Each structure stands twice: as C-alpha cells, then as structure tokens.
C-alpha cells in the first residue's frame, strides 16, 4: 500500500512542506530585522529636516545611505517570503 499525502493536494511529503515553511519564516524574520533597523535610522535622519535642510535634500541624503538600502532589502525579503507560491514537486 502506497503512502498518500492529502495535504493541500500536493505530492510533497509533510516534512518537506514544513521545512519550506520554516525557511520562509526565517527569511521573513531576517527581512523584518533589516527593515526595522533601516526604518528606524531613516526616521532618525528626519531630524535633518528640523535642522533646516529641505525635504528634497533629505531624500537625496537618504538615497545614498546604507540604512535605506537595508530597509529596501528587508521589504523585498518580506514580500518574497509572503507572496511566493509554494513549490510543488
């Protein structure tokens, strides 16, 4: 008698489905950490606006900072981990 898997109409065994979910959750946590660290720094740099710099200067300044790139990478990792479809083998 052959073992049948009825989980989500997939032929992937339960163990592989669980491992994929754990990997996606791990990517979600890493992306969240990067987005938070970059976002907090971006908010902290808003003090330049109150110091007299223009908002356009602030945007140009933020665009070249590492924190902004960490924020973008974190957001991309979050979106990818949530919206990629499950692999079916």
Quote the average pLDDT: 85
How many runs of DSSP E, i.e. beta strands? 0
**Rounded to an integer, what's the Rg over CA atoms?**
20 Å
Write down the secondary-structure element order: HHHH
Strand content: under 5%
What is the molecular shape?
elongated
Task: Explain the layout of strands and helices.
Layout: H1 14-44, H2 47-50, H3 55-63, H4 66-83
Helix pairs in contact: 1-4
Summary?
With 89 residues, the chain is an all-alpha fold. It has helices at residues 14-44, 47-50, 55-63, 66-83. It has a domain at 24-82.
Description:
The structure is a single chain. This protein is mainly alpha-helical and 89 residues long. It has a domain of 59 residues. Helices cover 70% and strands 0% of the residues. It contains four helices and no strands. Helix 1 runs antiparallel to helix 4. The longest helix has 31 residues. InterPro entries: YuzI-like.
Task: Based on the model shown, name its key terms.
single chain, YuzI-like, elongated, mainly alpha, 89 residues
């Amino acid at each position: 008698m052959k073992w049948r898997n009825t989980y989500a109409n997939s032929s992937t065994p339960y163990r592989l489905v669980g491992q994929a979910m754990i990997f996606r959750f791990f990517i979600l946590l890493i992306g969240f950490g990067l987005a938070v660290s970059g976002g907090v720094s971006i908010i902290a740099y808003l003090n330049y606006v109150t110091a007299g710099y223009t908002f356009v200067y602030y945007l140009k300044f933020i665009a070249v900072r590492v924190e902004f790139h960490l924020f973008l990478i974190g957001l991309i990792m979050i979106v990818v981990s949530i919206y990629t479809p499950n692999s079916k083998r």
